Amino acid sequence: MTEPLVIGFETSCDETGVGIVRGHTLLADALATSMAEHERFGGVVPEIASRAHLEAMVPTVHRALAEAGVSASDVDAVAVTAGPGLTGALLVGLAAAKAYALALDRPLYGVNHLAAHVAVDELQHGPLAEPSLALLVSGGHSSLLLVPDLAQEVQSLGRTVDDAAGEAFDKVARVLGLPFPGGPPVDRAAREGDRSAVDFPRGLTGPRDAPYDFSFSGLKTAVARWVEARRRAGEPVPVADVAASFQEAVADVLTAKAVRACRDHGVDHLVLGGGVAANSRLRALAEERCAAAGIVLRVPSPKLCTDNGAMVAALGSRLVAAGVQPSAPDLGADSSLPIDVVSR
After folding, report:
1. Is pLDDT of 141 > 90?
2. What's the chain's Rg over C-alpha atoms?
3. According to the model, what pLDDT value does residue 98 have?
4. Taking every annotated instance into account, which residue ranges of this chain make up the domain Gcp-like (predicted)?
5. What is the mean pLDDT of residues 325-344?
6. Is 137 annotated in some ligand binding site?
7. Most exposed residue of 31, 82, 94, 294, measured as fewest CB within 10 angstroms of its CB?
8. 3-state percent helix, strand, coil for the chain, nearest multiple of 5
9. 194 annotated as a binding-site residue
10. Is 274 annotated as a binding residue?
11. What is the DSSP string of 115-151?
């Protein structure tokens, strides 16, 4: 039997993503972003994001169908991010997905945004080993997940207790006078810097701290205070060195805890995902530490790490293949959908 053709809708934040997959094969990944509209505010404005999704949705669907070389009537199932995310933005995607599912008389699957970040790796590297461990790092999330069965069971081992790693990158970029979003500019600046120039703190790494939780608020504050002290003293701020030292502190904590979790749970496969997974130092340090620990590291291409429709379609395809019951027609958005709810 031919594998099902699944279309996925992602609108949890500022990216309007529509992806189309057949089984584990990616056919289309169309994306529209409103990032430029948020830049002057230094962060995503929910109302602006929601309006941008409304404007971009239909053209993005048409681009995805054209890229895949299929028509809407060829689709076998519709998947959509139901949470977590910005409520208004989620509702736009849900409305579009429901409309297509109803018009085409196809099953609808509301999926978890974080689980979708894990599922997207299957489009590049094939079926996921089970159990696997996933380290998801983005602007809104820093999570360690145990994945016994991606279609049925995902367990949270640890999460950020304050700022997510991506949020810390944005705030440090602002302190250093770098553009928003901060991840790519900090990464570029760090390539010219010394990672050991400043000994910034590693949050929640003491013997009494939660072994798998993350905290980046203190690190962000330490960077801001260090920079302010230099400026008060009339000394130049070595942007590249600060960026490299900050980035090293983030990558050090993330990879150390991920490897520790793999060892503690007897798991030898680690998936790295989320927008911050595109960071060059995080990827390099993860490869180094996983190799030393005998752990197989799987990292999607940078394009698939950021929010996209392909990841939603990938998880939808996995749910269809597993025979999971479709969502009810009155499926709603849940801005704080827990990770252990893979589909709704």
Report:
1. no
2. 20
3. 98
4. 26-313
5. 94
6. yes
7. 294
8. 45, 20, 35
9. no
10. no
11. HHHHHTTHHHH-SPPSSEEEEEE-SS-EEEEEEEETT
> Does 82 score more than 60 pLDDT?
yes
Q: Is 279 annotated as a binding residue?
A: yes
Here the tokens at position 109 are 């699957």
Answer whether 253's CB lies under 8 Å from 212's CB.
no
Check residue 237 and give its pLDDT: 97
Do the annotations mark residue 53 as ligand-binding? no
5-124+304-322 and 132-299: identical CATH topology: yes
Q: So what's the pLDDT on residue 213?
A: 96
Q: What is the pLDDT of residues 153-206, one digit of tens each?
A: 999 999 999 999 999 999 999 999 999 889 999 999 999 999 999 999 999 998
117 is in an annotated binding site: yes
pLDDT exceeds 70 at position 1: no
The amino acid occupying position 247 is Q
- Name the architecture of domain 5-124+304-322: 2-Layer Sandwich (3.30)
CATH topology of domain 132-299: Nucleotidyltransferase; domain 5 (3.30.420)
Check the annotation: does 312 bind a ligand.
Answer: no
Domain boundaries, the chain: 5-124+304-322, 132-299
Q: Is 143 annotated as a binding residue?
A: no
Cross-strand bridge partners of residue 200: none
- The type of residue at 208 is R
170 annotated ligand-binding residue: yes
